[in-house]
Amino acid sequence: MKATILFFLLTLIHFTAYNQYDFVQLNPSAKLDNAMVKLHQIVANPTSLSTAKDSVFTIVHFGDSHIQGDYFSGEIRRVLQEEFGDAGHGIYFPYSLCKSWGPKGLQSTSNGVWTNSHILKPDVSNKVGLAAYELSTIGKDASLSFQFTENFKEKTSTGLKIWYGMKSDATDFHLNSKFIEKEDLKFKSGWGIRTYTSKEEISGFDLSLIAENTASSNFSFYGFELLKQAPIGINYHHCGVVGAQFTHLINNADLILEQLGYLSPDILVFSFGTNEAYGNIDTVKYFNSINDFISTLNKLFPSTAIIITTAPDTRSQGKIPPSQVNVNNQLLKLAKNQDVSIFDLNKAMGGWGSLYNWYKSKLTLDDKLHFNAAGYSLQGKMFSLALLERYNKNYQDSPLDIGPIKSDILKVIVPVINNTPIPNDEITNPVIKKPVVKPVKGKVHIVKNGETISKIAQKYHVSTEKVLKLNHLTKNSIIRSGQKIKIP
């Protein structure tokens, strides 16, 4: 009994100490607090919700590979939907057809000639859609086929939405015979959303183009949604691109902004910073581009709350990202300049240098750039807890029970924070090692006056012993000016 109490007290001390990182905090945001009102209505009195707009709380999460893989965003979706209800997974995109990976459990094939683009590889003639990817074809006989395997974790349904683009009436598309078209929304700029119902639970579908006349026309596929019947709760879209930076999204956001207008999201989440941290950024240009983009979002979507997550601590190929501190500082500065909430993921991890603790605790992959399922799950729980804590602060009379998620975080984080991180000086003032110059294979050196074997070896960054051995010399051998010395 005493041992149990002692363990509890020690755990409580560790948890209290970890609270200094404020990993359960989101800085106050008027828009975020307004969004909580809708969440509260969904929780407190779901039967009073008269329209789909009232009953569905839409979150769109943009980012890089951490989001495309849907581990980080997927855990947030799982936690929030357990609390507020499952109104859908959001948009799916067949990344594998763009020679990337995911979604898990979705087999995608194509017939005919298709090209693809994304925010890192934009196509001048075809803008990317909400998923930040796009497939297009001008072929009359082109088709796409999708099958859900046993690894597909989400529940399927009998409702389906196709997000598409067509520049003229020369081409149309249809699905296989078990689908019945229910609605077709077409927007002025040439994209649309077509809704179908199926005679049975959807296990896959085929999309085929129809040539309306002899002229060829461009068709774009932006993704699909599986629809819930009478949805109530969270509909969570994840829209990530491997290698993406915030500015990649900003520079290719024209159609994305239009499609966001259709969704009218309650919360937008942006998780960038990892990739730009490994380059050298123009601080002023970087800040201004994001700041202007956020201003545009605030004008277009005055009721939408925005949350930005800072870049996590990473060490790809053992390198300290040269711009890591600068990137996160700009994101933190941005939150002070706009009505934006920040979830400081870096700080939640334990700050700069904490990656080593996470790696020792087997929460990252060996590349020290990506986290494993357990690592992303922990990060997702931290973000979710921050949001739930914010909700409870607004509704203290009817708070959610967040004890279980706190306990889940605690079980994992205590061993992590018990490890000793590297000194902070190495992060903010990294030692830049001079590159080692490798000698040219088989090079011959011509001896000059005053040179010795040791000086020659030092010049080519090789050992004296190796030079002596290659040239059949000893330490006592005498070398003369003009003599040829082989360099190993």
Explain this structure to me?
This protein has 16 helices and 18 strands. Strand 14, helix 8 and strand 15 (305-309) form a beta-alpha-beta unit. Mean pLDDT is 86; it is low at 2-24 and 430-440. The termini are far apart. The protein has 3 domains: 2-85 and 243-428, SGNH hydrolase (Rossmann fold), CATH 3.40.50; 95-227, Jelly Rolls, CATH 2.60.120; 444-486, Membrane-bound Lytic Murein Transglycosylase D, Chain A (Roll). Helix content is 35%, strand content 22%. It is globular, with a radius of gyration of 28 Å. Helix 5 (72-84) packs parallel to helix 12, helix 12 packs across helix 13 (403-418) and helix 15 packs across helix 16 (464-470). It has helices at residues 2-18, 30-44, 52-55, 65-68, 72-84, 246-251, 254-263, 283-300, 324-337, 345-349, 355-360, 373-394, 403-418, 424-428, 453-459, 464-470; strands at residues 56-63, 86-88, 106-111, 115-118, 133-137, 143-148, 159-166, 171-175, 179-186, 191-198, 204-211, 219-227, 233-240, 267-271, 305-309, 341-343, 444-446, 484-486. It is an alpha/beta fold and 488 residues long. A 6-stranded parallel beta sheet has the order 2-13-1-14-15-16, with helices on both faces. Strands 4-5-12-7-10-9 form a 6-stranded antiparallel beta sheet, with no helix packed on it.
